[in-house]
Specification:
heterodimer; A: about 110 residues; mainly beta; globular; B: about 120 residues; 11 strands
């Protein structure tokens, strides 16, 4: 099985900050990775697909990069509505696996 | 508008069974792979099971293999998850999700979730 190691598990940031979250795959997954945002009590929402493509309707301050085993989600100019938990998901091979999640909190 | 509506959750004793359902609308259900994803209270997301568009292939997480069975009825736009031999650590919100394979791979649509509680 492919393990997804996501870091950090949590971070504190201020409005306007630039935030970076990383996921490392235990083996190469090409660009078969997405990033999801989840707010308390809500279903996840996809932000990025194919590692670096922005989901329609998602603000351009969200961006993704990487391929193979190293992936990054960057949020530039953090906004109040961005405080949430973020997950990566690999769908390269079964069983698909999520990262452990990163909770972005207000400093 | 695409919609996924889960049902069937509830309180079950350890060792019991449940059948979760997910009714889809607003898209051509029979052309999409589907999955179940769960989230234990206060924990992260866990992919549980997936099924191909025609139902010919099914996949499971190691943690549920042999106890969970995914199926679908394309004539009724419905996805199912049969959960047997329930354990306390199966307690979670279970989401169904539509997987977009070609144009923008990943889970594009999610249901609101149904809560399964395993307790005596």
């Amino acid at each position: 099985d492919i393990q997804m190691t996501q870091s950090p598990s949590s971070l504190s940031a201020s409005v306007g900050d630039r935030v970076t979250i990383t996921c490392r795959a235990s083996q190469g997954i090409r660009n078969d990775l997405g990033w999801y945002q989840q707010k308390p009590g809500k279903a996840p929402k996809r932000l990025i697909y194919a590692a670096s493509s922005l989901q329609s309707g998602v603000p351009s301050r969200f961006s993704g990069s990487g391929s193979g085993t190293q992936f990054t989600l960057t949020i530039s100019n953090l906004q109040p509505e961005d405080f949430a938990t973020y997950y990566c998901l690999q769908h390269n091979s079964y069983p698909w696996t999520f990262g452990q999640g990163t909770k972005v909190e207000i400093k | 508008e695409e919609q996924l509506l889960e049902s069937g959750g509830g309180l079950v004793q350890p060792g019991g069974s449940l059948r979760l359902s997910c009714e889809a609308s607003g898209f051509t259900f029979s052309t999409y792979a589907m999955s179940w994803v769960r989230q234990a209270p206060g924990k992260g997301l866990e992919w549980v099971s997936g099924i191909s568009s025609r139902g010919s292939s099914a996949y499971y997480a190691e943690s549920v293999k042999g106890r969970f069975t995914i199926s679908r009825d394309n004539s009724k736009n419905s996805l199912f998850l049969q959960i047997d031999s329930l354990r306390a650590d199966d307690t979670a919100v279970y989401y169904c999700a539509k997987f977009e394979l070609y144009h923008s791979p990943g889970f594009v649509s999610w249901g609101q979730g149904t809560l399964v509680t395993v307790s005596s």
